[in-house]
Amino acid sequence: MDKIIIHGGKQLKGSIRVSGAKNAALPLICAALLAPGPHRFSNVPSLRDIDTIEKLLASLGAKTHRRDDLFEIDTTTVDQFEAPYDMVRTMRASVLVLGPLLARFGRARVSLPGGCAIGARPINLHIKGLEAMGAEIELDHGYLNARAKKLKGARIHLDVPTVGGTENLMMAAALAEGKTVLENAACEPEIVDLARALKSMGAHIEGEGTDTIAIDGVPSLGTLDYQVMPDRIEAGTLMVAATMNQGDVRIAGMISADLDALIAKLRQAGAEITMEEGAVRVRGPRRIEAVNIITRPHPGFPTDMQAQFMALMTLAKGASVITENVFENRFMHVCEMQRLGADITIDGNTAIVKGVRKLLGAPVMATDLRASASLVLCGLAAENTTEVKRIYHLDRGYERLEEKLRHLGADILRIPE
Ligand code: EPZ
């Protein structure tokens, strides 16, 4: 298992390009199940989660081929309908095959995900929505057995604006009979990307990016040739890195509008952020100001940036309050940050971070994807050496992060443990 070694305290400078978005690519690749034929995606990041979804679709009978950022998949030969426990356990986004399989083949068997490092993360709303569309779903030895002769459009109110639920239901509704309306739908940019891709296949969708999405089902869809959107969370992580290390970094290819909430908070923390042709330039302050954040569904402050923002606040002047509203257990990075000298107290879903003058390098262990990124950020700013272990979490969602940071001047190495 690899680990990352960081000698902190280097200023970050230069230009870097963000990769394609993991959380857009995963549902997009599942959408290929909706129509037989060869589908083609570009700007697909090279990540463990993409390997997992490729393996899952191959196990369903699809033929896949990858070269650099190109991902080709032919779903004509799909003849299996099961997402097994081992894959769903490795990556919860595997449940995104449920909607497409049910819509095209009338059947799917998907393992129920079980617990997760950041919260309970049930998929009850995916199930409820599909049942409202006429699916019959029963739990069978840990698996959801789903069947539907033909899904029917329905008006579905989501109790919380679930990202994966909105995606699963949008894909299912694209091939359903009649009109589906999703109320209290998620508004994340990745939903908009998926809607755009589905429309390019011939789907009729309106309202994506708002909390009400209307989908008029069509009898069949065409194939996809689609470029995945840039990764806003990778971009945000690099923005925090620049802010923390008195950096001067140009991040190319990112969509700044997708990160409005983060950009506003980074500016309050003292970062100078300017929009340039095709890039965003971030200059870090000499002293970071303390800023409070509350995570919320988009367009609120993203939960996927909470750990990284906390890393920044560990070095702020004064105290900040960080409230996690989306997942109930997303503070696993706190104990590790404390090992580096951070002063953080947790009270329920709130963390009070009192900024310290410096962090001191130490061995730390990653517990989930964004937690790993936050520990790398702390290591970049800490004195002496930080070792981040269990970085397979990082490899799920960041493409060559250490190479990109090294390119910006960080002293960071990956070594096999
Ligand atoms: C997506 O997860 C992302 N994953 C997550 O990114 C992200 O943190 C999350 O959205 C929130 O933005 C992918 O896109 C692959 P949700 P998802 O359903 O879809 C509750 C990362 O680090 N809920 O929007 O699983 C749930 O428990 C990851 O890249 C229900 O109650 O998240 C949570 O509290 C981690 N019932 C809230 O909704 C349901 O049926 C939001 O979850 C579904 C969800």
Characterization of this structure:
The protein has helices at residues 22-31, 48-59, 85-90, 98-105, 124-132, 163-174, 189-200, 232-244, 260-268, 306-313, 333-339, 369-381, 392-397, 401-407; strands spanning 2-7, 13-17, 38-42, 63-67, 70-74, 82-83, 107-111, 136-140, 143-147, 155-157, 179-183, 204-206, 212-216, 225-227, 248-252, 272-276, 279-283, 288-289, 293-294, 316-317, 319-323, 343-347, 350-354, 363-365, 385-389, 411-416. It is of the alpha/beta class. The protein folds into 2 domains: 2-19 and 230-416, Enolpyruvate transferase domain (UDP-n-acetylglucosamine1-carboxyvinyl-transferase, Chain, Alpha-beta prism), CATH 3.65.10; 22-227, Enolpyruvate transferase domain (UDP-n-acetylglucosamine1-carboxyvinyl-transferase, Chain, Alpha-beta prism). The strands form 7 sheets. A 4-stranded mixed β-sheet has the order 24-25-1-26, covered by helices on one side. The protein has a 4-stranded mixed β-sheet with strand order 2-15-17-16, covered by helices on one side. Helix 1 packs parallel to helix 2, helix 4 packs parallel to helix 6 (163-174) and helix 8 packs parallel to helix 12 (369-381). The termini are close together. The relative contact order is 0.16. The mean pLDDT is 96.
